[in-house]
Structure prediction request, 224 residues.
Amino acid sequence: MLLWGREAGKRMQARVRRLGIMGGTFDPIHYGHLVTAETARTELALDKVVFIPSGRPPHKKVRDISPARHRYLMTVLAVATNSWFEVSRTELDRPGYSYTVDTVAEFRRGYGGGTDIFFITGADACLEILTWKGVDELLANCYIIAASRPGFSLTDMGQRLGSLVSLVGERIFTLEVPALAISSTDIRRRVERGKSIKYLLPEAVEQYIKKNSLYCLQANDEEG
Ligand code: NAP
Prediction:
């Protein structure tokens, strides 16, 4: 937990009724992610949003993403000024692949049945949800908020989700976020090409990227 000590955390946890869990690789985190979380918090009246950097994403090669400690620290820096936001290390500290079903089950156990859990992530990622491990259990434990760029079609999403189509609108919602025109891929490319990334992400994250030479061609490929 980022902002509170253990005891304060317990008190906070006790009264949380609507919990947002913001899942992503966050390589790096940017204003699109932050605006998404804040929009979800205000639109859905969430008590807090916990950011969960993916530990070992099942669908990505580890060597293609930055070391977990960098992605975690950038996320911590990015949310530091929002008292409704926290960062969790749960997927970083759990051995093996980071399956969302396991993460949500862990939060479900921690918060109990009286809390509604909203798993927030990118709509593109959600389109693949049928291929995710334990999708039935996942949807039983939480609502899914699929954050999309403007123009993303809910109808297309329904068609792509096949057998889950009846859940679109019941358990799976889309949230249009214009700021998601910003993308981590674009930021990494800009850094690689020496272009400015100013105003695409918090300045502290920009400085962290510079200081640690992330996304440069010679970037190290250490893990952890
Ligand atoms: P991704 O494939 O890297 O991203 C897909 C799209 O969604 C990209 O456009 C990405 O933009 C956007 N996106 C990702 N996270 C977002 C967020 N929190 N808010 C708004 N947009 C977001 O997806 P990923 O980041 O690896 O995975 C997303 C989440 O799904 C993670 O929590 C991951 O663990 C989970 N997931 C679970 C399984 C499974 O359990 N089997 C499989 C796949 C993914 P940016 O590149 O700009 O972020």
In short: The pocket of NAP is lined by residues 22-25, 32-33, 36, 54, 57-59, 98-101, 120-122, 124-125, 132-133, 147, 180, 183-185 (CB under 6 Å). Strands lie at 18-24, 48-53, 85-87, 116-122, 143-148, 172-176.
